[in-house]
Amino acid sequence: MASVGLIGRINTSVVEFPVAQPRRSCGFSRNRVGFRVFAQADAEPDLSVTVNGLKMPNPFVIGSGPPGTNYTVMKRAFDEGWGAVIAKTVSLDAAKVVNVTPRYARLRAGANGSARGQIIGWENIELISDRPLETMLKEFKQLKEEYPDRILIASIMEEYNKAAWEELIDRVEQTGIDAIEINFSCPHGMPERKMGAAVGQDCALLEEVCGWINAKATVPVWAKMTPNITDITQPARVSLQTGCEGVSAINTIMSVMGINLDTLRPEPCVEGYSTPGGYSSKAVHPIALAKVMSIARMMKNEFGDEDYSLSAIGGVETGGDAAEFILLGANTVQVCTGVMMHGYGLVKQLCSELKDFMRKHNFSSVEDFRGISLDYFTTHMDLVRRQQEAIRERKAIKKGLQSDKDWTGDGFVKETESMVSN
């Protein structure tokens, strides 16, 4: 399947929102490391981005989950100003999806999980959408009719069945959605049906399913990666090689939130029992940065002159969090748990703080700084070499005067010090 390219340019102050474009080829280079444009002192930083032919007013995307679970909340996201919305994952037969309550558990930074401590971790055992597919499709269509110039992305997941995948793709595309994100990464629920992470952790299976999907899809496709794997670049590579226009990373990390030391039962506790779930929020941010960095380096090295996109996910609550992902090469930044904790208005704070970061460094557009930190990652062996070289240079300077003729009267004390070894 031909890829849809990222159109990299510095935009005017007026943001346009075209209707979704079909998949197509585009030959712009994505190798932008080191590229920088200085903005005029009074110019407002431009947050708009164009990803796989889709124009967004800013790079902030509602991540698939509760914040995109129905028409009402997705409408709210558009009204608040989010760059795009990814709906909660749908499948053909919602009757097989049965959620439980409680389904969340939190980790706080206070001593022994004090209720007054800051929330830094969030576990969920929630499944994909339990609403009938027909209802979700109707709401997708309604949203696209009311917001034709905004980007709505369907998240889909199916069993290991080619016909089922093809039917699901056809039905969601008929609603007018702009792109599809494939959930190859849900860490809990229905692995026996070869769904979610069961596919994302098996590159042979992933290659086959991606082939089915990209032979059918006519809109851009993003593959959502699981972090619960040794080398996340392997499934990312397979996804791109088999026709996906982009990858999203990371989904939640398999976890057990904790054990209640009074009841001796695990959390979240459902009728006295629990099951491992997906971990998110601030505590996963450093892990997500490492995974995104690995994928971005792979994409740059192996797909550098082709136009693929990277959507970063993991613990984003501030504009600085987002800037870190973009500095590593992300085109967009998804937020899910952050919205559940802080509300849909969070996007205004994110935009404001990202603009402050851009002003500080005189960046006029997101493309000006996307990926420029990638070159500062290397191997530990190279770090040793660089430090040894720097030490040799410092020692050479420390040796001081090379000849008696170099002594001066004004700098005599400092010149003496420069040749003292302790």
Automatic annotation (TrEMBL):
Broadest EC class assigned to this enzyme? oxidoreductase
Would the keyword Electron transport be found if you checked this record's keyword annotation? no
* Pathway named in the protein's UniProt entry: Amino-acid biosynthesis; beta-alanine biosynthesis
Q: What is its EC number?
A: 1.3.1.2
Q: Which GO terms describe its cellular component?
A: cytoplasm
Q: Which UniProt keywords apply?
A: Oxidoreductase
- Alphabetized Pfam families for the sequence: DHO_dh (PF01180)
Dihydroorotate dehydrogenase catalytic domain location, by residue? 47-358
TM helices/strands, residue ranges: none
Keyword Transmembrane helix annotated: no
InterPro entries given in the database record: Aldolase_TIM, Dihydroorotate_DH_cat
Molecular function per GO: dihydropyrimidine dehydrogenase (NADP+) activity; NADP binding; uracil binding
GO BP term, pick one: uracil catabolic process
Q: Which PANTHER family match?
A: DIHYDROPYRIMIDINE DEHYDROGENASE [NADP(+)]
Q: What protein name applies here?
A: dihydropyrimidine dehydrogenase (NADP(+))
Q: Which species does this protein come from?
A: Sesamum indicum (Oriental sesame)
